[in-house]
Amino acid sequence: MKHFFLFAFFTMALAANIMAANNAIYEQRRSDYVDSSLIAVNGTKLILQAYRDLPLDTNALNNKLNNIFTGQTSDFDIIELVRILYLTNGEYDSKILPVLNSVPYWVNKGDTVRNYWSENHMIMWSGSDWLLHEKYNRPIHPSVRARIVHYLDLKIQYGYYEFFSSVYTPYCLSGIINLADFAQDAEIKQKAILASQRLLDELLMLTNNKGVFFPVAGRNYPSKYKTPYGQNHNNLIYLLTGMGQAPSGSSAAGPFLASSTLPVDTIINSWKPIMDTTFYIGHTLDTGFILNSGMTAVDKVVFQWSSGAYFHPAVVQETVQLLEDSSLWDQVDFALLKPLQPIITPQSASALAEELSCISKSTVISGQTVSIFKHNAITLSSVPDFWKGKVGFQQYTCVANVGTTAVYLGSGEVHADWEDRNDNNANTHQPYVEQKKNLALLMYRPEETPGILGANFAFKDVALHFRNGDYDEVAEDSLWIMGRQQQGYVAVRRHCLGQVVGVDACPTVGGQAWAIMVGDSTMYGSFANFKNIVHNSQFEERWYIDTATSQYVYYAKVVADTITIDYAWGKDTVLNTGIGNIQTNALATNLYPNPVTDVLNINLSAFAGQQVSIKVVNMVGQEIFAEQTIAPVAAKTVQTNNWSKGVYFVTIETADNRHTARVVKQ
Fold first, then answer.
1. For a FRET experiment, which of 472, 585, 606, 645 has its CA 20 to 30 Å from that of 575?
2. Residue 581: pLDDT above 70?
3. Residue among 494, 514, 349 nearest 439 (CA)
4. 84 phi/psi in degrees, rounded to 5
5. Are 197 and 13 spatial neighbours (Cβ–Cβ below 8 Å)?
6. DSSP of 211-249, one letter per residue?
7. Which DSSP symbol is given to 444?
8. What percentage of the chain exceeds 90 in pLDDT?
């Protein structure tokens, strides 16, 4: 009886959603999208051909079928083929079904190619498995239904781990929308509708009034911040809102929404041109353990992985056990962990993961508070205090969007083309970020990365993605660079004035501090007025000693347009905010004169008798002076008459400590 009432409830709820027809403007846009996509030279057309009852492109279909056996992302093709099966009433069953039945749909022993565990892949594989079972009575594992229901419940209640991802959102949606359209199980169908609607709500949340989506993200690629239109997610935004450029052809995800009966009026109405809010998404790692406790042993681990908990000390024992039991060490997704195989066991894994915490903990992407500011064409979004100092994995912690261009920072090896950066780790060390309204402070202070992780993690430079050519007007004021695109403004306070391969970038000597501010003409009037506000802003940074713990604290503060943000990075048992009678960096007070002209004096009396290493680097990280010596009682003198004008970083390193300060050459 209980199941009957549950079924009746979901049936009535589903009927209410289906009977609520979408508005006529959306329906016309959807029809026009199908028409234009079918005649376009570019784009994927198989689903739309099936939807319009047209013959399928034989070559395109054969290519898709051939990719199922070897493709690393063959589930992208499988969800399309499953949709075609449901839209064509058996016409292509004999050609498609044997191929779809030839591959495994969940974790299997020795698989080196297929990914079943990240959030988008999970639902594409499991959802396809379920729909093939419902339509053709294909045998499946008993856990599949429970896995799908649990997945959908998590998304409805907590949102998506790969939050605001323009890479993964379209594929997540495609897997879920198949269930929303075709599932016979009323509970799965209704939950899939709600999960699809939440995902699209979140897509529109950070979309500006030009139809551009450049968000802070739990997982993303640099290519998604390169062009404002013509990408997979743009098709979804255009279909829902009509904003942005009309697609020149259909994307991978566009045909799923265009051929769907999903109710979207509430999604369309959720878009707002102006926002200033914080948005909590996900849950804590500990909560995840409780939520996933009812799953099978394998499913439990995979759900933990889907939230980014791969090698975290709290889960690593189960991870290593599954890698061993299923012979997954050679799977392409675990290449980073492969070097550890000879030295790690399930029993020793936790201690090793704790030792490598700079990389083992920061993969987790569950439970974030996202700060969002949107004002028509401009957005600023960030995740405060998101694994600061640790290695990042496709995580974009603070992004500004001005009209049709993205502004953000990235740590690691600098490339002239940001797409040449490593797709897997967007930051070799993540910043501390704090945002208030339209202003954000970003601070970098990297943790040490062990050599076992490879040379890629040795790069600590911080670079700025700011393309001057995207703006109608660009201005500089000391360390600030500002841009205007139409009526939208952005300002970035750089840490230095250096460049690497033509990109604004600074070497990390101890720490770095940056700031980003956005605005528009309705907030500040003219660009000249915005520039004046930036000119009158205040910025400071310094190191000081916490006398209670003898630890160095890195402190920065920005004040702009009545907004103040400051942060003290370090353990400070005396002062909670870092503001007060704090001690200044002892080295900074022992460099004189500062600014310097011909000779720099370095007072080393505090280190007298100790072996010290003295190093001076310029703004682009080039070493211009280095010496190892026994610190004298008197001051050490360094000739600076051959130095170019600019900012330099002086580092004194002893066996126990490292001290860094800036000096200006006039």
1. 606
2. no
3. 514
4. -65, -40
5. no
6. S-B---BSS--GGGGT-SSSSHHHHHHHHHH--SPPPSS
7. E
8. 72
Q: How far apart are CA 650 and CA 602, in angstroms?
A: 9
Tell me the two tokens of residue 132: 């093939």
How far apart, in whole angstroms, are the C-alpha atoms of residue 286 and residue 289?
5
In 3D space, the residue among 423, 371, 428, 420 whose CA is nearest the CA of residue 400 turns out to be 371
Cα(333)–Cα(331) distance, rounded to whole angstroms?
6
- What three-state secondary structure class fits 647? strand
- For residue 318, which of 280, 360, 292, 346 has the smallest C-alpha distance? 346
User: What is the three-state SS of 142-167?
Assistant: CCHHHHHHHHHHHHHHHCCCCCCCCC
Question: What's the CA angle centered on 255, arms 249 and 257, to 5 degrees?
Answer: 125
Nearest 5 degrees, angle CA 591-CA 593-CA 598? 110
d(CA 365, CA 353): 17
Q: How far apart are CA 255 and CA 249, in angstroms?
A: 10
User: Looking at residue 125, what DSSP letter applies?
Assistant: H
DSSP-derived secondary structure letter, 509: B
pLDDT at 454: 65
Residue 524 makes CB contacts below 8 A (sequence gap 6+) with 489, 530, 533
Number of Cα atoms under 13 Å in the Cβ half of residue 57: 13
Q: Which two tokens stand for residue 559?
A: 């004040």
Distance CA 306, CA 160 (A): 10
Is residue 260 within 8 Å of 177, Cβ to Cβ? yes
Which pLDDT belongs to residue 11?
A: 39
Cis peptide before 593 (omega within 30 of 0): yes
Q: pTM, whole model, 2 decimals?
A: 0.84
* CA 494 – CA 477 distance, rounded (Å): 11
| Cα–Cα nearest to 172, from 214, 218, 124 | 124
| SS3 (DSSP) at 282 | coil
Q: Are 208 and 159 in contact (CB under 8 A)?
A: no
Q: Which residues of 610-627 are buried (b: 16+ CB within 10 A; e: fewer)?
A: eebebbbbbbbbeeebee
Preceding omega of 595 cis (within 30 degrees of 0) = yes
CA distance 204 to 267: 8
Tell me the mean pLDDT in the region 503-523.
95
Enter the DSSP assignment of 420: G
Q: CA angle at residue 299 from 286 to 142, to 5 degrees?
A: 140
CA distances from 366 to 33, 159, 286, 387 (A): 35, 10, 10, 12
Checking if the pLDDT of 655 tops 90, the result is no
For the stretch 378-436, pLDDT in tens is 999 999 999 999 999 999 999 999 999 999 999 999 999 999 987 777 799 999 999 99
Cβ partners under 8 Å of residue 371, min gap 6? 277, 278, 380, 381, 382, 383, 384, 435, 440
- For 23-74, the DSSP string reads PHHHHHHHHHHHHHHHH-SSS--HHHHHHTT----HHHHHHHHHHHHH-TTH
